[in-house]
Each structure stands twice: as structure tokens, then as C-alpha cells.
Amino acid sequence: MNDNTKVVVALLAGLAAGAVLGILFAPEKGEETRDKLSESLKNLGDSIKETAASEIDNLVSLKDKVVESIKTKINGAEEEYQDDLEHA
């Protein structure tokens, strides 16, 4: 997990914790408090899913770049080997 992702996750966790504490200490009926808490947790879950999906996309992209780089290096080494065989 890179630094930006850690910051986003920490920010989301802080926002969720603040929302939960604000709701719990608000002078409302229990049912209203539970409904607000449930909605806040649902929103947090959605945010985490979006962040995770984004990070998965980043990892897939990174994997593709690494695989392509390795293939390029292998092909280059193979060509050099073939050249060496021809000149030997």
C-alpha cells in the first residue's frame, strides 16, 4: 500500500470514527441514532470498496508493466545469445 492510499484510508477511518462518535453523543432517539450509524457505516464500507478497487487496478497495471518489462529483457537476452552463437 503506498503512502497516498494509507492517508486516504486513515482519513476515511477518522471520518467514520468522528461520525460514529457524533451520532452516539447526539441527543436523539435510539432508532434514529442507529439509522444514522448504519448509514455512516454503509458509506464507509462503500468508500473502502472504491479505494480497494482502485488499488487493485493500480496493482494490475503495475503487474502488466513488470511482465512486459521482463518479456522485453528476455527477448533482448535471447537475441544477444543468438548473435553470440552466430559469431562463435
- Please give the number of β-strands: 0
H/E order of the elements? HH
Helical amount = over 70%
**What proportion of the residues form beta strands (DSSP E)?**
under 5%
Give the low-confidence spans.
none
Mean pLDDT: 83
Q: Decide which structural class fits the backbone.
A: mainly alpha
Oligomer: single chain
Total of DSSP H or I helical runs spanning 4+ residues: 2
Distance between the termini: 48 Å
Shape: rod-shaped
The largest sheet is: none
Rg, nearest Å: 25 Å
Describe the structure.
With 88 residues, the chain is an all-alpha fold. Helices cover 92% and strands 0% of the residues. It has helices spanning 3-25, 30-87. It starts with a helix and ends with a helix.
Short description:
The chain is mainly alpha-helical. Helices cover 92% and strands 0% of the residues.
Which features characterize this protein?
88 residues; mainly alpha; 2 helices; 92% helix; 0% strand; rod-shaped
SSE layout and pairing:
Blueprint: H1 3-25, H2 30-87
Helix pairs in contact: 1-2
